[in-house]
């Protein structure tokens, strides 16, 4: 019997499991633009355009390769709203109920496929270095699931930057040489940009009409939408930006949205690039002496370490993971996240860049928007929905552990051994935001004091019971306890006044 072969919008790889298991001479590939996927959160218009354009290009590529593709466009009059609806419709058309799928990257869809009234074969997604079974074997029985140890396993498994069974250079991790602030450098290369072709232009018009009101600027649109373009973006990054990736990966600059970051996350996540091919290229650059070890190691750690680790954890923890709220935070997400006015220069810059580019780099996500939401006690579920909506690379398996776990400490400390909170000092050290801010990062209390300085202590005080026994936080509590009582009272009073203004919808 002819089979339907499901290819989702983030499964755009020739080697994806369902395609590998199918027979191109008789099976039918089903790809569908559907309202449920374009609407489960208010995705940034650039993200929708990226996924839909890449889907259309991939469908054309499959046809060139000899596959028959039943492709549904979002505005097709016969289209149903959901992936399962489209499978049922195509099943009727082709008189079959047999489907081969690759396991989706989100519990919502995993469950929808499980419950579909079809004969489903769902294959593991093997476009990762570690299978989910391998991750579970590693995690089983461990009290502490820290990424660093998992990463070493992945280094051994792949052989990247290994000298026999020892890490190249003698150390597993070179972050000590990184974490440098950056200064504006007019000569620093920019990530590669691509001019939209006709297919992309048609998608841009569709997205403008259907999703023009979603938060985010659709145009100009310069993302790669084919594997060929994504490979060019990788090549450009490896030659021009990778050498200084390590030192500047934590830096933030008002005038440089990208610094030395690769912007390859979305291409990896939708399947245009493969993690092993990226790391192979990075290792080659190091072997050729064009890239220092700290940059090559730093990059490879993000890809075979963090990326693989968060996926393993998301599926291991189960469908309730994204809804966790370990610190019981319940403040509504402030309107400034959706572009309302703010006087905080760091948040203004991170949100404006997110609106314009559907992109912010890791430290902006973690230590500006994430840090503020955590300090202010925002409901992590609202924070999660925001991150899932606004970034070009946001798919739940990777977004939720980063947001709910790493950034909001809402998983009770599985990913992070202590919350990623900081006062304004950290932001000042790593960026040039504070120089242009209406607040003063040097002021700890009173009119014009940096809100991060106030909220930092407020957070620690309100969660003292939870964190007082954490050895990595003992120093912070000692500093607080040594402060004069009058000063402590003022900090808390000022923090509460700030939160009141935030809740009242004032521009803070
Ligand atoms: P680079 O700085 O060039 O890093 C190289 C690659 O490493 C990235 O392309 C990415 O594939 C991988 N990587 C780096 N850090 C991580 C990480 N923590 N987890 C997984 N992979 C990582 N990443 C996503 O891909 N999708 C998300 O939805 C997402 N949401 C995030 C939410 C929060 C709150 C935080 C703190 C981080 C999130 N990240 C997410 C991780 C990271 O911020 C992005 O992968 C990175 O900013 C993508 O930009 P880049 O390609 O320029 O990365
Ligand atoms: C993100 C996304 C969007 C915006 N639209 C579609 C779509 O129309 N059709 C589709 O197959 N996939 C889409 N995707 C990607 C899915 O949401 C993604 O496969 C799941 O979130 C699982 O990771
Ligand atoms: Fe952000 Fe505070 Fe610096 Fe202003 S002073 S940019 S609010 S850290």
Could you characterize what this model shows?
The chain is mainly α and 508 residues long. It has 3 domains: 4-123, HUPs (Rossmann fold, 3-Layer(aba) Sandwich), CATH 3.40.50.620; 132-193 and 225-316, Alpha Horseshoe (Serine Threonine Protein Phosphatase 5, Tetratricopeptide repeat); 335-503, Orthogonal Bundle (DNA Cyclobutane Dipyrimidine Photolyase, subunit A, domain 3). It is built from 22 helices and 7 strands. The strands form 2 sheets. Strands 3-2-1-4-5 form a 5-stranded parallel β-sheet, with helices on both faces. Strands 6-7 form a two-stranded antiparallel ribbon. A hairpin with a 2-residue loop joins strand 6 and strand 7 (166-167). Helix 12 (275-287) packs antiparallel against helix 13, helix 13 crosses helix 17 (396-407) and helix 16 (380-390) crosses helix 17. The termini are far apart. The mean pLDDT is 97. The chain binds flavin-adenine dinucleotide, ligand DLZ and iron/sulfur cluster (SF4). Flavin-adenine dinucleotide binds next to helix 11, helix 13, helix 15 and helix 17.
């Amino acid at each position: 019997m002819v089979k339907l072969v499901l290819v989702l919008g983030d499964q755009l790889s020739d080697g994806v499991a369902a395609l590998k298991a199918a027979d191109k001479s008789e099976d039918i590939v089903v790809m569908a633009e559907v309202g449920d996927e374009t609407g489960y959160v208010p995705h940034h218009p650039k993200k929708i355009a990226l996924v839909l354009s890449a889907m259309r290009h991939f469908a054309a590529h499959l046809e060139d390769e000899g596959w028959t593709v039943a492709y549904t466009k979002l505005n097709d009059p016969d289209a149903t709203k959901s992936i399962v609806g489209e499978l049922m419709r195509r099943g009727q058309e082709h008189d079959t109920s047999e489907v081969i799928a690759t396991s989706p990257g989100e519990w919502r869809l995993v469950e929808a496929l499980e419950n579909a009234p079809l004969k489903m074969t769902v294959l593991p997604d093997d476009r990762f270095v570690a299978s989910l079974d391998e991750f579970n074997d590693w995690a089983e029985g461990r009290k502490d699931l820290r990424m660093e140890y998992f990463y070493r396993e992945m280094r051994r498994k792949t052989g990247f930057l290994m000298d026999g069974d020892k890490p190249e250079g003698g150390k597993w991790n070179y972050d000590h040489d990184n974490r440098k602030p950056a200064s504006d450098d007019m000569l620093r290369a920019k990530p590669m940009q691509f001019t939209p072709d006709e297919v992309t232009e048609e998608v841009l018009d569709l997205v403008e009409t259907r999703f023009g009101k979603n938060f985010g600027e659709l145009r100009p649109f310069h993302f790669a939408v084919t594997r060929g373009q994504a490979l060019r973006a990788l090549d450009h990054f490896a030659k021009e930006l990778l050498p200084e990736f390590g030192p500047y990966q934590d830096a933030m600059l008002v005038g440089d949205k990208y610094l030395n970051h690769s912007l390859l996350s979305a291409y990896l996540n939708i399947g245009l690039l493969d993690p092993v091919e990226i790391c192979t290229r990075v290792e080659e650059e190091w072997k050729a002496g064009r890239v220092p070890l700290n940059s090559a190691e730093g990059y490879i750690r993000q890809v075979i370490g963090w990326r693989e680790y968060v996926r393993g954890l998301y599926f291991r923890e189960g469908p309730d993971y994204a809804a966790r709220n370990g610190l019981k935070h319940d403040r509504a997400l402030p309107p400034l996240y959706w572009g309302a006015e703010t006087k905080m220069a760091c948040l203004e810059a991170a949100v404006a860049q997110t609106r314009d580019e559907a992109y912010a780099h890791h430290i902006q996500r973690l230590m500006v928007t994430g840090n503020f939401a955590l300090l202010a006690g925002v409901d992590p579920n609202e924070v999660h929905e925001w991150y899932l909506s606004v970034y070009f690379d946001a798919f739940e398996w990777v977004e939720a552990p980063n947001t709910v776990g790493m950034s909001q400490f809402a998983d009770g400390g599985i990913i992070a051994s202590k919350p990623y909170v900081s006062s304004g000092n950290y932001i000042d050290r790593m960026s040039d935001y504070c120089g242009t801010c209406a607040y003063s990062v040097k002021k700890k209390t009173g009119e014009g004091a940096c809100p991060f300085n106030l909220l930092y202590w407020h957070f620690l005080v309100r969660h003292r019971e939870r964190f007082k026994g954490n050895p990595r936080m003992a120093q912070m509590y000692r500093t607080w306890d040594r402060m004069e009582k009058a000063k402590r009272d003022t900090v808390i009073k000022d923090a509460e006044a700030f939160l009141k203004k935030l809740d009242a919808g004032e521009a803070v």
